């Protein structure tokens, strides 16, 4: 991974002191949100009452959905961001802080941002055409509306806020593309082996 460049902030939030307070609070809140969402979506549910065969497939294949992978990637990113905030606030280790800033920028640029935008736009795009293709009404008992929005809407909202309040150390296009390619190429065989 090559050294990136620090993206300069526009006048979105000119006061660095305010940004240094809002950033850590935001990262803690997002981590709590994501961990609760993952916990709730993996909670034991009684699928035996389901009459629609697609609900059984939901139970079986949910770990393979790109939505699940994206939520895990975002959670890892925001945990790293929270850890970075702790190092930065308490000036614990400048070397580790700088490395973490590099990794954080790389993960955000190459994985978190493109994957989250893909998940949200694909889900809501297909949902607007035909809901049954992505979230049939028979799923409502197992995937309530609030959970659906946590998995497919809030992921973009937190990205927009993150872009506005945090300076990211951006990697080169080539290294970011390689990271995204490795992720997509590692998911494809796993999904294929489960479906076929």
Quaternary class: single chain
First CA to last CA: what distance?
35 Å
Strand order within the widest beta sheet: 1-2
- Largest sheet descriptor: 2 strands, antiparallel
Q: How many beta-strand runs?
A: 2
The coarse silhouette is globular
Helix content: over 70%
Structural class: mainly alpha
Main location: membrane
GO cellular component, one term: membrane
Membrane topology: Multi-pass membrane protein
Subcellular location: Endomembrane system
What does this structure look like?
- The chain has 196 residues and is mostly helical.
- It has one domain.
- It has seven helices and two strands.
- The chain has a two-stranded antiparallel sheet.
- It is a multi-pass membrane protein.
- Its main location: membrane.
- The chain crosses the membrane at residues 21-41, 61-84, 105-126, 146-166.
- Belongs to the AIG1 family.
């Amino acid at each position: 991974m090559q050294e990136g460049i620090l993206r300069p902030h526009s006048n979105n939030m000119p006061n660095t002191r305010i940004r240094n307070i809002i950033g850590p609070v935001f990262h803690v809140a997002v981590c709590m949100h994501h961990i609760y969402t993952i916990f709730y979506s993996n909670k034991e549910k009684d699928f035996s009452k389901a009459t629609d065969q697609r609900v059984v497939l939901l139970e079986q294949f949910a770990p393979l959905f790109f939505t699940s992978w994206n939520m895990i990637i975002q959670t890892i990113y925001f945990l790293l961001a929270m850890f970075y905030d702790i190092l930065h606030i308490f000036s614990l280790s400048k070397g580790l802080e700088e490395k973490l800033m590099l990794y954080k920028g790389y993960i955000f640029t190459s994985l978190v941002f493109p994957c989250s935008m893909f998940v949200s736009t694909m889900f809501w795009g297909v949902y607007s055409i035909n809901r049954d293709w992505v979230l049939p009404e028979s799923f409502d008992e197992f995937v309530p509306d609030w959970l659906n929005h946590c998995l497919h809407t809030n992921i973009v909202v937190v990205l927009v806020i993150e872009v506005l309040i945090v300076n990211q150390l951006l990697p080169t296009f080539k290294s970011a593309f390689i990271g995204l390619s490795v992720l997509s190429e590692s998911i494809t065989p796993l999904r294929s082996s489960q479906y076929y």
